[in-house]
Amino acid sequence: MSHSSHSVKRSHVHATHGTAAEKGIHVAIIMDGNGRWATARGRPRTAGHIAGARVVRKIVEAAPDCGIGMLTLYAFSADNWARPSREVALLMRLFRRYLVAETDRCVTNDVRMRIIGRRDRIPGELLRAIQAAEEATKYGKKLDLRIAVDYSARDAVTRAVKKLRGHESVTREDVARAMCDVDHWTGDPRDVDLLIRTGGEQRLSDFLLWECAYAELYFTDRRWPDFSPADLEQAVHQFHSRERRFGAVPEAAAG
Ligand code: FPP
User: Fold this and answer.
1) Contacts of 56 (CB under 8 A, 6+ apart)
2) Which of 43, 96, 233, 251 is a Cys-bridge partner for 38, taking CB atoms 3.0 to 4.6 Å apart?
3) How much distance in Å is there from the Cα of 105 to the middle of ligand 1?
4) What is the distance between the alpha carbons of residues 25 and 59, in angstroms, rounded to a whole number?
């Protein structure tokens, strides 16, 4: 299989210099299993989301100590609008509450918080909270926390292609940059190093398809409300024990 030296280089750059956030690995998490966690306890699905929001706080706090520089959380996919309106409304309220409640802590902990995804369908109150949280935390250097809301990777690719239409030559870097722009990520494009999915399913569900080209995948049966900092540490530990070759042959085996 062919590969590009480009991905190797990018990973090398992030490993050697830059801010603490740039030096750490990029972990993306599909936080699945809230509904089943609640149902198993005879409670409404929304109780699972409320418990899930508490876990988000703990995981964000634990991330820098695990060597994570960028953490991208899948909070709401473009397809999630099809859920019952009560559940959607609860989730939007939870996101807003999280942003309002966590902004000061992010500033104190040197965390830059940004929401990625479409913004044209986000309720006004949440949109204002997003703008305030992003503005207040924009100098964070220790961790780039990105929360994906109304996110779809295919949709991002489609909008990036539209943006680049008419350009004479288009490089991978151009596509990566355009994808950041359409989803309101103002930092540099970064590949995902480790993708974690909780809740027992083993699929990507339209999350960061471009950025996950060489991501290590880690699936756990643990449902998101039960996921702990120790579980995160274990996933990162396993990641470091894997050999990443980006399609190449290891030195020792070459020739
Ligand atoms: C998937 O579980 C989870 C979601 C669609 C919502 C994720 C939201 C949170 C973790 C809480 C709030 C987040 C933030 C950033 C404050 P599911 O409902 O599909 O679970 P199921 O597969 O068991 O039904």
Assistant:
1) 31, 73, 98
2) 43
3) 22
4) 15
Rounded to the nearest 10°, the torsion over CA 116, 88, 53, 32 is: -80
Amino acid of residue 115: I
End-to-end C-alpha distance for the chain, whole angstroms: 17
Candidates 34, 65, 80, 155; catalytic one: 80
Active site residue 80: yes
Q: Residue 11's CB: how many other CB atoms inside 10 A?
A: 18
Sequential pLDDT tens for the chain (255 residues): 444 434 433 444 444 568 989 999 999 999 999 999 999 999 999 999 999 999 999 999 999 999 999 999 999 999 999 999 999 999 999 999 999 999 999 999 999 999 999 999 999 999 999 999 999 999 999 999 999 999 999 999 999 999 999 998 999 999 999 999 999 999 999 999 999 999 999 999 999 999 999 999 999 999 999 999 999 999 999 999 988 888 888 777 776
Q: What is the CATH number of domain 20-242?
A: 3.40.1180.10
Q: Which residue's CA is the nearest one to ligand 1's atom 7?
A: 75
